[in-house]
Amino acid sequence: MTADRPPLAEGVPDRLYGRRRGHPLRPRQQRLLDVTLPRLRLSPDQARDPLSAFGMPGAKLWLEVGFGGGEHALEQVAAHPEVAYIASEVFENGLCSLLTRLVAEGEEGTGALPANLRLWPTDARHLVQALPEGCLDRLMLMFPDPWPKSRHAKRRFVHPELLTLVARALRPGGEWRIASDDPTYQAWVEEVFAGTSLFTQAERHAAERPAGWPGTRYEAKARREGRQPIWWIFRKV
């Protein structure tokens, strides 16, 4: 077990993702991971007092789990400079996609970076466990991998065993925002949250994306392929 992946609480499956890398990385992408990522990386020690990593005492703290290509995260960071924003992603090509948008080639080590953004490039569940109790104002899970096979259901971030960890990290009334276009995952979200008293459903949108939710490439792909996304807001009781 590595230093940035302490053991998870008993009962929480210790695996969220599949592969960490897609196609081979180009030299520019490797420089982004080697030089730019460390400039934004939230360390395990900083996770215990996250606002100190931003130098933003008293700020609201948001966490996005699995940011994919980074479109949603970067729009939120730009639109809410007063919010301390942690974006988590294990997939190296997704990390490179976000970092490419932040710094020009040749400026990987010197280009200006958003002061209100930090990255967590490993399993987000370890971060949620490490965060102080009640520190999060919002957690966002946008179009997660559905893991459609029953034997892989334990890898879903929405999981009965994980609800307690998320509820501990969220402040009372804090939001857990979820979006999915996959019918299996949509049914799973409804089932899991119906079985808990830790959260109450505040909003559910099944026609159009609600205001304040930036679009993603995954939503666009779903619409092209005829799948209907659903957006939820659950609030910690």
UniProtKB/TrEMBL annotation:
Residues that coordinate or bind S-adenosyl-L-methionine? E64, E89, D123, D145
Gene Ontology cellular-component annotations: tRNA methyltransferase complex
* PROSITE patterns with a match to the protein in the record: SAM_MT_TRMB
What keywords tag this UniProt record? Methyltransferase, S-adenosyl-L-methionine, Transferase, tRNA processing
Which parts pass through the membrane? none
- SUPFAM superfamilies noted in UniProt: S-adenosyl-L-methionine-dependent methyltransferases (SSF53335)
InterPro entries with a match to the protein in the record: SAM-dependent_MTases_sf, tRNA_(Gua-N-7)_MeTrfase_Trmb, tRNA_methyltr_TrmB_bact
EC category name: transferase
Q: Which pathway?
A: tRNA modification; N(7)-methylguanine-tRNA biosynthesis
Region of interest called Disordered, as start-end residue ranges on this chain? 1-23
Q: Which residues bind substrate?
A: K149, D181, T216, R217, Y218, E219
Give the source's domain of life in one word: Bacteria
Supply the Pfam families for this chain. Methyltransf_4
Q: Give the EC number(s) under which this enzyme is classified.
A: 2.1.1.33
Question: From the Swiss-Prot or TrEMBL record, what is one GO molecular function term?
Answer: tRNA (guanine(46)-N7)-methyltransferase activity
Q: Which reaction does it catalyse?
A: guanosine(46) in tRNA + S-adenosyl-L-methionine = N(7)-methylguanosine(46) in tRNA + S-adenosyl-L-homocysteine
Question: PANTHER family given for it?
Answer: 3-DEOXY-D-MANNO-OCTULOSONIC-ACID TRANSFERASE/TRNA GUANINE-N 7 - -METHYLTRANSFERASE (PTHR23417), PENTACOTRIPEPTIDE-REPEAT REGION OF PRORP DOMAIN-CONTAINING PROTEIN (PTHR23417:SF14)
Stated family: Belongs to the class I-like SAM-binding methyltransferase superfamily. TrmB family.
Q: What this chain does, per the record?
A: Catalyzes the formation of N(7)-methylguanine at position 46 (m7G46) in tRNA.
Q: What is this protein called?
A: tRNA (guanine-N(7)-)-methyltransferase
Give the organism's phylogenetic lineage: Bacteria, Pseudomonadati, Pseudomonadota, Alphaproteobacteria, Acetobacterales
User: What would be the name of the gene that encodes this protein?
Assistant: trmB
